[in-house]
């Protein structure tokens, strides 16, 4: 399918949403991909890119040509451009905004991510006890993961940066788990933002290498799961998103505890912004059915 200038701009904007989400602890770029309706196409595209690289390493040029042709570059290139712009800009804009209005901003993200639960849930064709149990197990795992205390590693080694990037980047295509949150838990969130804003190329290139390897490996695994266990994978995504909402609870977020609002903390702005975020996603579902149903038919489990 050929890409028009309008769709290229549209995909770039989707990339901006994904990249901006990945800068925010608690929000996942994968969740944004689900919301805008490109999730399964993105996973398949990344899987084809990995297959292309593997074919080149094996000197199987015919297979490499076929995988290259199967990659929807009209989606991938503008998406990557939008992600890169959002990360570079977001590293300078979003953290100060979160610092100035942490409670209200978390309320907005809470409503937005909570509404995104509807998207994978609607794609489950048949609910079984096993799938429900899988969803609950993933919810419990995400709930515990998002309660981990943040670490502080002022001067991380390049090996730590490489491994942390390989793990955290998976959140870009895994809804519910925040890459920024994982970087916080592994102690390199602040050093990474400082390296990006300070253009420390050794750090940045090491991070990018780890991210590329981690993303490629995980994309292949996720594509296999979507191919052979589609409904079970969607049930797991519902659980991951539900459990990870803990990271976006507006009150007590810094200490990673769940509590109610205390004296002096905003309540009305939090509720209003949460409703705005929730309503925006629900409106998108009605306005664009592709947010709930990908443009290609799901491969059944």
- In which range does the helix fraction lie? over 70%
Low-confidence stretches: 291-301
Tell me the total number of β-strands: 0
Biggest sheet architecture: none
Number of domains: 1
Could you give the order of the helices and strands?
HHHHHHHHHHHHHH
Task: Give me the Rg, rounded.
Answer: 19 Å
Count of separate DSSP helical elements: 14
Distance from first to last alpha carbon: 26 Å
Please identify the structural class as seen in this structure.
mainly alpha
Q: What would the average pLDDT be, to the nearest integer?
A: 79
Strand content: under 5%
Shape: globular
Quick rundown:
Helix content is 70%, strand content 0%. The chain has 301 residues and is mainly alpha-helical.
Molecular structure report:
With 301 residues, this protein is mainly alpha-helical. It is built from 14 helices and no strands. It has one domain. Helix 9 runs antiparallel to helix 10, helix 9 runs parallel beside helix 12 and helix 12 packs across helix 13. The radius of gyration is 19 Å and the shape is globular. The two termini are 26 Å apart.
């Amino acid at each position: 399918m050929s890409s028009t200038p309008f769709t290229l701009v549209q995909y770039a904007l989707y990339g901006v949403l994904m990249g901006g989400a990945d800068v925010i602890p608690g929000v996942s770029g994968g969740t944004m991909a689900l919301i805008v309706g490109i999730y399964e196409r993105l996973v398949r595209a990344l899987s084809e890119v990995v297959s292309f690289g593997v074919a080149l390493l094996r000197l199987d040029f015919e297979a490499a040509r076929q995988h290259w042709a199967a990659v929807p570059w009209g989606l991938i290139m503008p998406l990557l451009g939008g992600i890169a712009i959002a990360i570079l800009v977001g590293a300078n804009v979003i953290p100060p905004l979160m610092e100035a209005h942490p409670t209200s901003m978390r309320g907005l993200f809470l409503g937005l991510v909570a509404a995104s639960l509807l998207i994978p849930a609607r794609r489950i064709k048949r609910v079984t006890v096993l799938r429900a149990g899988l969803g609950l197990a993933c919810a419990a795992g995400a709930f515990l993961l998002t309660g981990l205390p943040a670490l502080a590693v002022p001067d991380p080694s390049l090996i730590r940066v490489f491994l942390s990037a390989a793990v955290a980047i998976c959140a870009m295509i895994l809804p519910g788990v925040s890459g920024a949150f994982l970087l916080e838990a592994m102690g390199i969130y602040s050093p990474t933002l400082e390296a990006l804003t300070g253009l420390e190329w050794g750090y940045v290139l090491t991070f990018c290498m780890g991210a590329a390897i981690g993303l490629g490996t995980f994309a292949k695994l996720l594509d296999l799961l979507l191919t052979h266990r589609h409904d079970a994978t969607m049930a797991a995504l519902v659980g991951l998103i539900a459990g990870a909402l803990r990271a976006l609870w507006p009150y007590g977020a810094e200490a990673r505890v769940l509590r109610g609002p205390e004296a002096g903390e905003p309540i009305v702005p939090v509720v209003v912004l949460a409703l705005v975020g929730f309503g925006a996603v629900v409106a998108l579902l009605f306005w664009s059915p592709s947010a709930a149903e990908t443009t290609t038919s799901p491969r059944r489990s």
